[in-house]
Amino acid sequence: MKITRIYEDAMKSCVICNSCRYCEGLCAVFPAMEKKRVFNLQDMDYLANLCHNCSECFYDCQYAPPHEFNVSIPAQFAALRQQSYKKYAFPNFLSFIFEKNAFISALLLVVLFFAGFYLAFAGKNSQSGDFFDIMPYTYMTSLFSIVGILVLIALIVGIVKYAKAIELKNVSFSAFIQTLKDALSLKYLGGHKNEGCTYPNETRSNVRKIFHHLTAYGFIFCFIATSLGAFYHHFLHIYAPYDLTQFPKLFGFIGGIFLCIGTLGLLILKLKADKKLIDKESVGMDYVFILMLFIVSFTGLLLMFFRESEYLAALLWLHLSCILTFFILLPYSKFVHMFYRFTALLKYNTEEEQH
Ligand code: SF4
Ligand code: SF4
């Protein structure tokens, strides 16, 4: 019933927007909307993930609340995006559990993993800063490989379900490259005149784009650092711990700093965001996701600085517990927006090319 109401309100707003067309130059959402006369649920899932919640159309709109038409695209689409994450998640029931108790679930998982590591490896530590003195290499890699593969399967199934639902087809190579460019440059976060977007309030600023960039590239750098670590270990036979002049540590250090600044910035912006434009149902999971990403990067940096201290074992268990929790939450959190948005942009660029 609640889902129907959310979709109905957003569909009504889209019909009004299609008659008005005042916002058609603002972002990709309005040109995509104008290709339709009537909207079904899948169209709404497509449009909602094309929106990045900049709020510009809300501040420009003569029909926004308190007007009786109640056109509030950013808040209505934020609610729809949250519904789409649940609808296409695999397995579906986990998204409902995590959504209702996002903070408690995350905390419980961290505590359980930490307790498990403590029971298995109590008394172990390392003078030289070698993690594998505390937790054997095969144990650590097996645990993370199993969790990583399960998470990857859940993510892929969710993305494929979403792509099929919004009818993504006949994608050309040029549309794919254009989408990659748009996504990597966060094109639409710059506002329609590249003066920045109206988030967290009516004043234009590029600050959100900067924090998004830092978070995204910090994540990519940390991923590269982990992959390089595995490459050094297996193929070059150069073993951890690495120092700052070696690529695995250098990428990890820069990535960790980027992630800490980016996530902290996004968290502050979210706290300052215009309350009229927030979807209260989804905001809890958003906070937990950003907070977990911050804690993962922060504990990673702590590990670098306290590598030769007596707290190394406890810090390592905490860091690994946070990473495992973060991994498990990924397919049911805002993280999927990155892929759904890419998929929606791919459909948009494909349709633009065909028209
Ligand atoms: S958001 Fe408001 S101003 Fe913009 S197109 Fe829709 S109805 Fe028109
Ligand atoms: S909130 Fe921003 S991105 Fe979303 S539809 Fe409005 S102008 Fe476009």
UniProtKB/TrEMBL annotation:
Q: Which UniProt keywords apply?
A: Membrane, Transmembrane, Transmembrane helix
Q: Superkingdom of this entry's organism?
A: Bacteria
Q: Where are the transmembrane segments?
A: 102-121, 141-160, 214-235, 250-271, 283-305, 311-332
Alphabetical list of NCBIfam families matching this protein: CitB (TIGR02484)
Q: What is this protein called?
A: Tricarballylate utilization 4Fe-4S protein TcuB
UniProt source species? Campylobacter cuniculorum
